[in-house]
Each structure stands twice: as structure tokens, then as C-alpha cells.
């Protein structure tokens, strides 16, 4: 049994479409525990740090523009194998390929507007939680 923490974020499209409650509900019902959450407007500087691994990709500019286009709902969740289980619940990156029943499968059709971000490893969870939250914002 591995108790982990992960960083999840409802992207600007999900916030605009009022999917925050639905998404929080899914992770709560699954049995994960919310450790911190906030609605924030990401700066360009934070967006570039968050997506640094994609800096050389042709869609990097579009990615930064989109993630800074409106508020996001940033969260830290804890639970058993939460990093990989949350990724399963999110569905494949491309909503055209994500299974029905997953968040992206149920709520999106567009790769660039795929509703939710979730850390993909222990190292990225630690890095992303540190980018978005101070220790005193987590319980
Ligand atoms: P992930 O969000 O499932 O971890 P990543 O490969 O880390 O997927 O990509 C980050 C985000 O970049 C994706 O969620 C998606 O919205 C966006 N993205 C990935 N590939 C493309 C692309 O080819 N064009 C536009 N946006 C893309």
C-alpha cells in the first residue's frame, strides 16, 4: 500500500464550464482526501515553469496561452496510489481516445481543452505541488 499525494488542476475550460464540483465529487467518492485547493489565475511565468518539459514542442505557446486564459482550480489530493489512479480517472490525454466514464472521456472532445491536469509521477507530483502551494496552504 502506497499513500501518495498528487497535484490535480481543473483547467480554464473546466472552470468556465462549471465542472469543478463534479470533478471534486468524483475524487471524494473514490475515497481520496483533499489536502488543499484554490482558484487561481496562473501567471505566464508559472505556466512556463509548470509546462517546462514541453518548452521545445510546437504547441508550447498555445499551451501557455490556454492555461493562463482564465482561472484554474488547483488541488492536492492524498490516497492510496493516487497518482496513477487519478490518471486513470482522468482518461487518456487526447479526449478522442479517453474512455467513457473518465473525466476527459465524459467532458471533452479536444486535445488542447481537455479539462484536467494531473501529475504523472512521484517526482512531478512533488515538483508541481511545490510550484502551486505553500506548506501552510495544505492540511
Ligand atoms: P497530460 O496532460 O495527459 O499529462 P502531456 O503530454 O503532459 O499530457 O501534455 C500536456 C497538455 O498539453 C495536454 O493535457 C494537452 O492539453 C496539451 N497537448 C498535448 N499534446 C498537444 C498537441 O499536440 N497540441 C495541443 N495541445 C497538446
Description:
This protein is of the alpha+beta class and 139 residues long. Helix content is 40%, strand content 20%. It is built from seven helices and four strands; from the N terminus they run E-H-H-E-H-H-E-H-H-E-H. Strands 2-3-1-4 form a four-stranded antiparallel beta sheet, with helices on both faces. The model has no long low-confidence stretch (mean pLDDT 98). Its EC number is 2.7.4.6.
- Describe the global form: globular
Bound molecules: inosine-5'-diphosphate
Unreliable segments of 5+ consecutive residues: none
Q: How many β strands by DSSP?
A: 4
Number of helices: 7
Average pLDDT level: 98
| Strand residue content | 15-25%
Kindly provide the radius of gyration, computed on alpha-carbon positions and rounded to a whole number of angstroms: 14 Å
Function: Major role in the synthesis of nucleoside triphosphates other than ATP. The ATP gamma phosphate is transferred to the NDP beta phosphate via a ping-pong mechanism, using a phosphorylated active-site intermediate.
Protein name: Nucleoside diphosphate kinase
Catalytic activity: a 2'-deoxyribonucleoside 5'-diphosphate + ATP = a 2'-deoxyribonucleoside 5'-triphosphate + ADP; a ribonucleoside 5'-diphosphate + ATP = a ribonucleoside 5'-triphosphate + ADP
EC number: 2.7.4.6
In short:
It comes from Viridibacillus soli. It is globular and about 40 Å long.
Write the layout of secondary structure elements.
Elements: E1 3-10, H1 12-16, H2 20-30, E2 33-40, H3 44-50, H4 60-67, E3 72-80, H5 82-90, H6 103-107, E4 116-118, H7 122-132
Antiparallel strand pairs: 1-3, 1-4, 2-3
The structure holds inosine-5'-diphosphate (IDP).
Inosine-5'-diphosphate binds next to helix 4.
Amino acid at each position: 500500500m502506497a499513500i501518495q499525494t498528487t497535484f490535480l488542476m481543473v483547467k480554464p475550460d473546466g472552470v468556465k464550464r462549471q465542472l469543478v464540483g463534479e470533478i471534486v465529487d468524483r475524487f471524494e467518492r473514490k475515497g481520496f482526501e483533499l489536502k488543499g485547493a484554490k482558484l487561481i489565475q496562473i501567471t505566464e511565468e508559472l505556466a512556463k515553469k509548470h509546462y517546462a518539459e514541453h518548452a521545445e514542442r510546437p504547441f508550447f505557446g498555445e499551451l501557455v496561452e490556454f492555461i493562463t486564459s482564465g482561472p484554474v482550480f488547483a488541488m492536492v489530493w492524498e490516497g492510496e496510489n493516487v497518482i496513477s489512479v487519478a490518471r486513470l480517472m482522468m482518461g487518456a490525454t487526447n479526449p478522442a481516445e479517453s474512455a467513457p466514464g473518465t473525466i476527459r472521456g465524459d467532458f471533452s472532445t479536444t486535445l488542447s481543452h481537455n479539462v484536467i491536469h494531473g501529475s504523472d509521477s512521484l517526482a512531478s507530483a512533488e515538483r508541481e505541488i511545490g510550484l502551486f502551494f505553500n506548506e501552510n496552504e495544505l492540511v
